[in-house]
Each structure stands twice: as structure tokens, then as C-alpha cells.
Amino acid sequence: MTADEARVPAAQLGAFVTRAFVAAGLPEAEAQTVARYMVEADLRGSDTHGVIRLPLYVRRLRAGGINAAPNIRVVSESASVALVDGDNGMGHLVMHCAAILAIEKAKEPGIGWVGARMSNHAGPAALYVTMPLAHDMVGLYFAVGSNNHLPPWGGSESLLGTNPMAVAVPAFKEPPIVLDMAPTVAAYGKVRLKAQCGEAMPVGWMIDREGKPLTDPKRADEGYLLPIGDYKGYGLSLIIALLAGALNRAAIGREVIDFVKETGKATNTGQAIMTLSIEAFTPPAEFKKAVDAFIRDIRQSQRLPGLTASGFPASRVTPSSSTVAPAVFPCRKRCARVSMQWRGSLTSRHCPSGLVHIRASSLSAG
User: Fold this and answer.
1) Residue 88: is its pLDDT beyond 90?
2) Structural domains in the chain, sorted by start
3) Tens of pLDDT along 132-188?
4) Which of 171, 202, 257, 299 is most exposed by smallest CB count within 10 Å?
5) What is the pLDDT of residue 47?
């Protein structure tokens, strides 16, 4: 821990975030829900999508870019699908409702798909895609990014965002498998974090308008994020935009509002969550034991020289980290390690110490 950092108990941090949202106009209960998700994001290690976003959310609430008292409602539905209108409310609240509805939808037909429109940035996708795990369901999530930083392959106009996708698969005794990723090499939040910390970006994150590597995060507006897998990452971002945006009558392409720069405008962010009941295919315990077996095969498989069993270079982890499951990873300057498994209360769910490290600069930037 450096001089400009402080360790804060998660419950204390959650109470602070709640008070900030109440002061900005959110009702107490809704403020507590959003605060819980934001602190959980930090406990998971998603520091670019957690409490660091508080100043931006407050600015948007005060500027009218987010509705503090939305009427979140279902505008169309059938047995297994539904469309939720978030009435420009906090994205965490919209996705909280959408995830619960998707779980309920999947109980009878075995599958539930809930799209959302008129939503907002909702933090890391893992927050919602892991909710179905407690119901022996697989979760999938898609969202349109809250600003455009990715051009079509070979293009020079940013028409796509860091449109995230996530998948969560339950296990039996092992931690669940959780994939939460953007189709770009780095999420734009990581670029902002580099700028705040005065650090250079690695080569391969961004290019400038001439196609040359861009490593100065303070010049990020002068360039573009790079997709994973070249044209394949661009294609993935495009499909996610159609499924989470166009299908829900939400913003895509030139309609996307930069939620950082245009704080007074509604973003009409589109998201979607799908839940799949394991019982519709096979006994859940049998499936989860198969997942366990596969996890153990991966853990026990041969490694490249210099890598630990967790897949990290030996120089980056503590000696005790070499025996942890693949879904447990070092949490950069946040705690000893963070588990993807859902456990107990907020203060002990993921962070063994129940502490969140906060940089002095983290709550001063959007």
C-alpha cells in the first residue's frame, strides 16, 4: 500500500457510496443497491468499473443525464423473453431487475432472455451474469458500450464500443467459471486509469489516427482501441451491438452518447441477459461435477516454463498463489487475491480481508 492509498472496510465504503447517491437524489433503498454492486465490483478486482465511477454517476444524476426516480417496467414479454424499459435509471438498478426477471423466466421453459433499453452503465458484467448460478443456471450477458472507441475493421471512424459480454457456468466444489470480457484488447476504463496514475499504456492497446501505436493515455481521444483477434474482435463487437442494442431499440453506432463527455444526455444504453436452466438438459449435480473435473484437468495440465498453476508468471504472484484454482487471481493492489465464487455477505464475498484499497485520485476522476 502506497502513501496515497487507504484500506477501507467494504461495509464502510458501501455506506459512503450510499450517502453520496442519496445526496444526489436516489432514494435510500435504490442507493444501497447500487452501492452494493459498485463495492462488489472492487472486491472482484474490477477497479475500473467500481467505486471509481462514483463521481461520474453523481455528475450525471445532477446534470439530468440519469433519472433518479425511474419507472423501470416491462414493456413486452412472452413466456421466456421480455423487454425492460429502464426509464433512464441507474444501469445497476435496471440490470438488477432484468437479471431477476430472466431467472424467473427460465424456471419453466428452461431459458429466459431479457433485453433492456433506456438503461445506463451498470458496472462489470460479472455482477449480473453470476446471479443465475445460485439457481443452477448458466448466465450470459451482452451490452452496448457507453461510448465509441472502436472503428470497423480497417476503418477510421469509431462506430463501435467496448461492447462487453460475459458467461458464468456453475461448478460443484470448484469456483464457477466466469468469463467477463470486452472485444477490445483493453477496456477504455483501463485507459482512463492509466491516465490517472500517470502510467503509459502497453503497445497493442491503442493506435493513433495514422495506425501507429499509441501509448500515452492522455492522448487517447486521438486514437482508437484495438480489437482482440483483429477482425474477429470487430465482428464480435458488431454482433453484441445488434443483440443488446438494435434488438432492444437502444442506441448503436452514431446514436451512442458518450456518457463521460455528455453528462446531461440520456444514453439509451442497451443490455441483455440470458439464463439457461441446466436441469432442462441434464441433472445439475452431474453437470457441475463434470465442470469440476474439467477445471481440475486444466489445473493439473502441463504449463509453459515460468508459469504457475494459476497461469500467471511466477514473478507476479506470491508463493501461496501457485495452488489456487484457475478462477482465483491476484487482485492488483486491492487485496491478497480475489475469488470469482459467490459467498456470504458483501464484506466477505470475494475479498478475504473484506477491504478495498482506494487510491487518493480514484474518487476525483470520472
Assistant:
1) yes
2) 1-63+334-366 (1.10.1530.10), 73-184+227-280 (3.30.1370.60)
3) 999 999 999 999 999 999 999 989 899 999 999 999 999 999 999 999 999 999 988
4) 202
5) 83
